[in-house]
Amino acid sequence: MKHHAFGRIAFTVTNVGFGAWQIGGSWGDISEADGRAALNAALDAGMTFIDTADVYGDGRSEKIIADVLKSRAGKRPMVATKAGRRLNPHVAEGYTKANLEGFIDRSLTNLAVDSLDLVQLHCPPRDVLYQPEVFEGLDALQKAGKIKGYGVSVEKVEDGLKAIEYPGVVSIQIIYNIFRQRPDHLFFQEARRRNVAIIARVPLASGLLSGKITRDTHFASDDHRNFNRNGEAFDVGETFAGVPFEVGVQAVEEVRKLVPAGATMAALALRWILMSDAVTVVIPGARNGEQARANAAAADLAPLSADVMAATREIYERLIAPHVHQRW
Predict the structure, then answer these.
(1) In 3D, which of 113, 116, 110 has the Cα closest to residue 151?
(2) Could you report the per-residue pLDDT of 260-274, keeping only the tens digit for each?
């Protein structure tokens, strides 16, 4: 894995990090033991970036991270969390300094730290991005030492472009993968110009790009790939990257033909993301230690050829773009 400066704040992170949504919940039955094993394997492999959120398992993910890091010696990795989705209803009016400070205080307790490395607004309603007082509140919390930096996790490219207009925003988390290529058209260029770190999430399109899912795959009732298939619980773009399931399975069969000998489709998908020099860190999740080690190893895959990159673009434009390109 390569190491990158994290935008404008004083952290250096590996280009493959650990996405901790799965160890929190909404991915079927993943035990705490498996979650701890996955995180320990990621850290043993050298990963120095962990991404979580206060709503992943209602704090379960943050607490597992705190316990694992407490048990380990050596330099602490960068831990990014998120705030805002605990609001009920989740509306722009709820993004007050007082509410955000309350969420941050809860994460400080869950993560057992005095200051959060990074807090990200968690896919806030678009109106939040037009309220400078929200970002002034985050500036005040940073000045008070509760957070070292802040960013925004966004659903849409347009939201990312708006968020980086605020000088205090040091990072944007956005969906970017073979099935969601639009961020590389304009947004990455603007992020590079402003030295904003990019966290690429949903890199395997909720497992589609692992190559292990078929039309007959069954998902548990508590797995978002079941209960959010059509956006019933949150933005449908978070599930299978917003691609209709049957279309995604069809496209996967074409991507499969591009996998280098000896590699997995998941490794190809992660290496594809790392071909963009705008991406600071990609955050695949892992259900166990084996998956975490495989994610780390993907960084060692040889750069993809121009022919493979062109082929992925053609598959995207022909099968996927009509469903997702203008939507996100």
Answers:
(1) 116
(2) 999 999 999 999 999
